[in-house]
Amino acid sequence: AQKVxxxxxxxxxxxxxxxxxxxxxxxRDTTYYLFWYKQPPSGELVFxxxxxxxxxxxxxxxxxxxxxxKSTSSFNFTITASQxxxxxxxFCALSEISGAGSYQLTFGKGTKLSxxx
Amino acid sequence: DAGVIQSPRHEVTEMGQxxxxxxKPISGHDxxxxxxxxxxxxxxxxxxxxxxxxxxxxxxxxxxxxxxMPNASFSTLKIQPSExxxxxxxFCASAQGEHRYSNQPQHFGDGTRLSIL
Lengths: 117, 117
Fold this sequence. Notes:
The structure holds 2 protein chains of 2 kinds. Chain A is 0% helix and 53% strand. By secondary structure, chain A is an all-beta fold. In chain B, strands 2, 4, 5, 6, 9, 10 and 11 form a 7-stranded mixed β-sheet that branches. In chain B, a hairpin with a 2-residue loop joins strand 5 (42-50) and strand 6 (53-56). The mean pLDDT of chain B is 92. The A-B interface holds A 31, 33, 35, 37, 42-47, 50, 52, 91, 95, 97, 100-105, 107-110 and B 31, 33, 42-43, 45, 48, 55-56, 89, 91, 93, 95, 97, 100-101, 103-111, 113.
């Protein structure tokens, strides 16, 4: 069965600090997708990134970067020079590609990030 | 482009009443998902549709829950009769299926916050 673990329940940082959110996953499939979503205090879920299991290249988007390591089953998310607007709950999610072409997302419990001005 | 639209945003009702949640997916998306979010259980997939057909409803908690998708632009999630333990935020999401195993990102609505008294 697939599982996503976000061990950090809550993190607080001071504005402009860098912060890394950890995500460890378990799956028996060799082909899968990993995602990060952001849930700001307003409650909506915002898609941030999708990465498939064959692409271990790190990705950078502005202040956001993602480090995917299959060897450790991790897909960590780093925010550089954090800002107050980054305060949110961040979810890591996994989707296996079953014989039925499954789209089922398994979410971690989320990490609540608070950026203090 | 309009995102996923859910209504109502908030619903407060008494135990035993019927509750209907509504969702309009992004135009052109052929996958639709219903999720429930609670503090205890996090984000759980309840059911998902492909081309208006239910594919997996194994996450639906019990027979009191039902979901329909009469056409490509509308879906409902119904709870009858409602119970206090159904109180949660219910999200609808949609995704575009380019091909069977593409696992395109799911785009979420703003959610319906349901309170059963």
